[in-house]
Amino acid sequence: MIAEILIILALILATSLFVAGEFAIVSVPHSQIKQLYDEKHPAARLLWPILSNSHNFDRYIAACQVGITIAGLVLGAFGQAKLTEWLKPLFQGEMADYLLGPGILVFLTAVTMVLGELVPKSLALQFPVKTTLWTTFPMLAALWVLRLPIAVLNGSGNGLLKLMGFKPEEHHHVHSPEEILLLLSEGESAGVLGSHERERMQKAIEISDWTARDLMVPRPYLQLIDLKSSLHHNLKKIARSNYSTLLVYRRQPDQIEGYIRCQEVLRYLISHGQVRNLDSFIHPVLVIPRNLSIQRALDKFREHRTRLAVVVDDYGGVAGLLTLQDILAELVGAVGDEFSHARGYYRVLPDGRIRVSGQMRLDQLKEVSGLDWESEFASTVGGYIVAKLDRLPHRGQKVEIDGVPALVEKVSSRAILTILIEGQLKPSKGDAEAGNTQEPSA
């Protein structure tokens, strides 16, 4: 009797082993197993070739499923027969013959579900790395023992899929961007990640959907040097500029010849006492289309070993300027980039109104004010206001959007520099001191 009980317990334990092995292998972080593999951990050295090879991974999962099925069938047949044999003398009457067998089967099923499935599943999901390492050696032994039925059953299943018109796919441990964002949110909720870490990782994923147009400094906000102007005028403009780099043109603003570094010009002027012309200070500039993805723009920066590029529209006209700092600022926050300081500018005034830059993106406005302004035609606050006005803006012009009054405070040429958003709005992030306090300049 003791031997039979031990066999039943062993079958339940085998079921729990296969269940734990399956749930652990599909949820274990591959990076941690790879690290243990590099550290020559015995179990990890056997496990990594399975995780890194989709065919081996598929066979491992099949071994778990076949093992669960065989252990369950044997437990049901053997356990029901033995328990019925032991308990039948305790019951009398014909009803016992009809109820004892099904009752024992229900009992064994319940015990197997709790001890053999639910408990090991919970442990595997809570401790995937430890569970995977603990089950590696017995699972590999089962994989060798069950290699023949696994091959037959896998082949039968794949053949049936082909007859049904489907292509058999091997298991891959791949997460979609949406799943990764969900994992980051769960990590933040669990306290594993801080809110700032989660935001940076989220932006690193979302940046693949952005284009140069989304992050560039628009043309109206650029300062350009006209090489046909007098040298004295251009030197004064360089000395007074807040920017370290200025684009230069000779005939028309759309015909950019390159850029100059203000420090180079001023250093030469101080050392030699005069500058004869600016042509020798001109550096070639990279040109990219405005619909180029940010990832491709980064590739271009690396390829040409530059940190800025002129963004052009479909007709070759200058649309704006994209710098490496613009991209980094989106990932890690403001880093003192002189080209993009105006983009993130906002200030909460004592009366509760918010002064924001016309360059601020609509998603940034939502962060600082809670306003959910959306448009398929505009990505910045200034562009959104212009779309609502249906005309070129002028200083002092008012517009009401979703019941919120807004005032065009400063305009330069056709571009809106700052807007006052009226009403008692409470920013969701920061305050007057926390915001970027360097105002956009004309």
Produce the secondary structure layout.
Layout: H1 2-27, H2 30-38, H3 42-51, H4 54-87, H5 94-126, H6 128-145, H7 147-163, H8 177-189, H9 195-206, H10 212-215, E1 217-218, E2 224-226, H11 231-240, E3 245-249, E4 256-261, H12 262-272, E5 286-289, H13 294-304, E6 308-312, E7 318-323, H14 324-332, E8 346-348, E9 354-357, H15 362-369, H16 381-389, E10 398-401, E11 404-412, E12 415-421
Parallel strand pairs: 2-3, 5-6
Antiparallel strand pairs: 1-7, 3-4, 6-7, 8-9, 9-12, 10-11, 11-12
Helix pairs in contact: 1-4, 1-5, 1-6, 2-3, 3-6, 4-5, 4-6, 4-7, 5-6, 8-9
Task: Walk me through what this model shows.
The chain has 442 residues and is α+β, with helices and mostly antiparallel strands. The protein has four domains: 162 residues, no CATH class; 33 residues, no CATH class; 121 residues, CBS-domain (Roll), CATH 3.10.580.10; 76 residues, Uridine Diphospho-n-acetylenolpyruvylglucosamine Reductase, domain 3 (2-Layer Sandwich), CATH 3.30.465. 53% of the residues lie in helices and 13% in strands. The protein contains 16 helices and twelve strands. A five-stranded antiparallel β-sheet has the order 8-9-12-11-10, covered by helices on one side. Strands 1-7-6-5 form a four-stranded mixed β-sheet. It has a three-stranded mixed β-sheet with strand order 2-3-4. A hairpin with a 5-residue loop joins strand 6 and strand 7. Helix 1 runs antiparallel to helix 4 and helix 8 runs antiparallel to helix 9. The longest helix is centred in the N-terminal third of the chain and has 34 residues. The termini are far apart. About 3% of the residues have low confidence.
